[in-house]
Design goal:
Two copies of one chain form a homodimer.
Chain A: H1 3-14, E1 22-24, E2 31-33, E3 39-49, H2 61-78, E4 82-92, H3 98-114, E5 118-126, E6 131-141, E7 156-159, H4 165-168, H5 179-185, E8 191-194, H6 199-210, E9 213-216, H7 228-233, E10 240-244, E11 255-261, E12 269-271, E13 274-276
Parallel strand pairs in A: 4-5, 9-12
Antiparallel strand pairs in A: 1-2, 3-6, 4-6, 7-10, 7-11, 8-10, 9-11, 12-13
Helix pairs in contact in A: 2-3, 2-5
Chain lengths: 287, 287
């Protein structure tokens, strides 16, 4: 099948019709979008590679597509944004037949449309191994996007759910992006991040960006089957971690895990009185 | 070197400071952009893979970076847009040391900034082979972006330069995106595309989208060293092909190559009286 025939099929699978902000989708040199007035645009890109982020023995085609979309949507959630459009650059290997590719798009499209997101374009090519780069565009009211760098000493640290789930499940599950919760945090949270690489590393990043340290309570919301190591360093949970000024009531669904502190060694995290190493998922330190 | 250390370096190499539409660049879950009022947003993604679109024996690191940027910028040119922001998802293989990666970013950043484009974000990971997905965001006055589907029978077909250059050079050169010319075509051209996959295939795409056929004059602007086959089917020239209504004077730099016609077999191209096969660069038909 030729490239143009694939693209015709993908257009049908994703049902990417024009309308409501999408002037022209798949099929031209660029997609044409009409941004809503008074809002900032959010852009995230996430590369998923066979053998690095995707193991065929762990995920079905449908799950792989859903996960590719969910990772990008989670970044929009972490900014308190509304997700709008998704673009997929896909390299199809020889082992992926039409049925596999169709199931991948089915998982991707289902995850996207459940969150009101339309597939607006992308790129398609061949490769030895599967590569999927997902770009998600979202928006937020002007100046209201949540950042990593706004936490202050004294702010309380929260997470949106039990940790260690992905690691305990052997990374076989598809995360659910916390878009609704992210929107509720707009105007309340001082900082926010999604836990893609593990609590220790991602909280360290918030502390470094904000110029703070963190003191964890020593008790974490953890799924029953996870070890403490998996909860702290496992990654891929895609829960939100955020900070709120002391005294601000958190929206439902958040659990307190500690507090931001001052201190000289910016980025240092203490857990149960001991210094926590800022390690987690890092493709440059694997295998 | 850890992921975060790489990202710190990349931030320095690309000098992606905030300002003029860029509220927050590299370093958060998303980039935050402030789109200009009254303009449509253009989005294009281009995946470049080692062994498919990139051969290390043909291009230096700097050239590879420049070419990755140029391919995306060329898509914005084809829409008559102004290019604004570039995002790069990069998978770094073991053979690419710090020096190679730095030279790649140097080529990418130089090409981008020469066209007023800022590096606003991306993703970074490890892989066995190099993969680079370039996303370019641009804009155009509302409703003025050039499309593929507006050509009508009787329109004159033009190209922006001599064809076959890339193929004759063994695909060793870095194309120059025709952004200035693209902008001049706004409000004048009825359709436009960039010649990434070769004249025959890309013109066929314009004809299919517009519901026309094409009659080429039989004489093409060709670089002296290229064969006719390379000019027709070679690809990667990244010149613009556009159509203007008969009687509309083309901007400087365009050469007439034929005329759009009616006819039943939409997409059919005739060259020197014979039917031209719509073939060219297609990753699904290579090797």
């Amino acid at each position: 099948m030729r490239e143009d025939a694939w693209i015709d099929r993908i257009r049908r699978w994703t049902a990417a019709r024009a309308g409501a902000g999408l002037v022209a989708g798949i099929g031209d040199d660029c997609a044409v979008l009409r941004p809503a007035a008074g809002r900032d645009l959010l852009v995230t890109t996430d590369l998923m590679l066979e053998g690095v982020h995707l193991r065929r023995d762990l995920l079905s085609a449908q799950q792989a597509g859903a996960k590719a979309a969910a990772r990008g949507l989670s970044d929009i959630a972490a900014m308190g944004g509304d997700a709008r459009f998704l673009f997929l650059s896909l390299a199809v290997p020889a082992w992926a037949d039409r049925r596999w590719v169709r199931a991948f798009f089915s998982g991707l499209t289902e995850m996207a449309s459940r969150h009101g997101v339309r597939i607006a374009g992308g790129d398609l090519t061949r490769a030895e191994k599967l590569a999927a780069d997902v770009v998600v565009l979202g928006d937020a009211p002007r100046g209201k996007a949540l950042r990593r760098d706004g936490a202050r000493a004294g702010d309380v640290i929260y997470v949106s759910g039990a940790l260690g789930r992905a690691a305990a499940a052997g990374f076989r599950d598809v995360p659910e992006p916390r878009l609704e919760l992210g929107r509720k945090l707009r105007g309340r949270a001082t900082a926010c991040i999604d836990l893609s690489d593990g609590l220790a590393l991602d909280l360290h990043r918030v502390c470094k960006a904000s110029g703070t340290c963190a003191e964890l309570d020593g008790v974490l919301p953890t799924v029953p089957e996870a070890t403490l190591d998996q909860a702290l360093f496992g990654g891929e949970d895609y829960e939100l971690l955020c900070t709120l000024p002391a005294g601000v009531r958190p929206p439902q669904g958040l659990e307190r895990i500690g507090v931001m502190t001052g201190g000289r060694a910016k980025g240092e995290i203490r857990f149960a009185g001991r210094r926590l190493e800022p390690r987690g998922w890092d493709p440059f330190r694997q295998g």
